[in-house]
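Q: I'm building a small set of examples for a reading group on sequence design. Run inverse folding on the following structure and report the sequence directly after it, with nothing in between.
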């Protein structure tokens, strides 16, 4: 582990090649629909894996200046490539839309890389430099734990990554036994608190799916249900828009998958819809006999 956090010879050519590979890989992964709701897609949206790259560069740098410049150049190359490869393939304009957010973090790599180098001194105060990166990772764990609880077993790999990596950083960077113990206790408490808060509560996707059935507006007399109740709960709910009152099929989806929405009209007709549920979207269409 010590070789990984200080024993690698990360020359400038290696940094540039690595940045190009990671940028292209991330952009390609973002375009593959099959991995959209898996741990593989997380590198395209959140910080945790990029934090690992930054720490590896810092810990294998030769000086504060070397650390700052290599972090800056790595992200200056890799982040634009993520969007540019998608723009070239899809004819989109993601670079202009999203890179304005990441350019700020890229510039911040200069001071962060410079200060981060002091972790190599292996002093007790080094934990105050590392702790923001641990907190970022744990923050992402909170988000992906919620995703896992809705989509299980998807996102389990990134959840484990976010739990394990803070301890890898602590034991890979520091040799001081007291620093290792204290920081590990703090990290373990934070992770336990998140698990304790998130696991007991329900993680649902709330939305509304229908306002009309067979061209007629839904009324309170309509009855709705799901073929398999494990996917969630549905009901008729009153909504208002100005002075207008109308009714919708209100849903709390508990997990992704395919099921049927069954609608019973006041006239006794049963209308069935095929329903495909995702984490934050759905597809519904009337079932044809």
């Amino acid at each position: 582990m010590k070789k990984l956090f200080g024993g690698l010879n990360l020359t400038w050519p290696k940094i540039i090649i690595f940045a190009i590979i990671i940028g292209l890989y991330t952009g390609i992964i973002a375009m593959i629909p099959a991995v959209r709701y898996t741990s593989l897609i997380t590198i395209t949206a959140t910080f945790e894996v990029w934090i690992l790259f930054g720490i590896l560069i810092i810990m294998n740098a030769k000086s504060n200046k070397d650390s700052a410049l290599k972090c800056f150049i790595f992200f200056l190359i890799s982040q634009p490539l993520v969007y540019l490869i998608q723009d070239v393939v899809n004819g989109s304009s993601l670079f202009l839309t999203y890179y304005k957010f990441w350019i700020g973090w890229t510039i911040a790599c200069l001071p962060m890389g410079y200060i981060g180098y002091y972790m190599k001194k292996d002093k007790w105060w080094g934990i105050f430099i590392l702790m923001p990166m641990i907190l970022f990772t744990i923050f992402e764990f909170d988000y992906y734990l919620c995703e896992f609880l809705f989509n299980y077993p998807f996102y389990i790999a990134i959840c484990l990554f976010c739990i394990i990596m803070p301890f890898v950083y602590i034991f890979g960077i520091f040799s001081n036994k007291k620093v290792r113990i204290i920081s590990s206790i703090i990290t373990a408490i934070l992770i336990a608190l998140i698990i304790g808060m998130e696991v007991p509560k329900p993680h649902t996707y709330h939305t509304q799916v229908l306002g009309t059935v067979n061209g007629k507006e839904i009324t309170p007399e309509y009855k709705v249900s799901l073929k398999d109740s494990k996917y969630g709960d549905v009901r008729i709910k009153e909504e208002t828009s100005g002075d207008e009152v109308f009714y919708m099929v209100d849903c709390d989806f508990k997990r992704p998958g395919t099921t049927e929405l069954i609608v019973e009209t006041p006239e006794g007709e049963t209308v069935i819809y095929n329903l495909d549920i995702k984490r934050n979207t759905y597809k519904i269409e009337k079932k044809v006999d």
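The chain has seven helices and nine strands.
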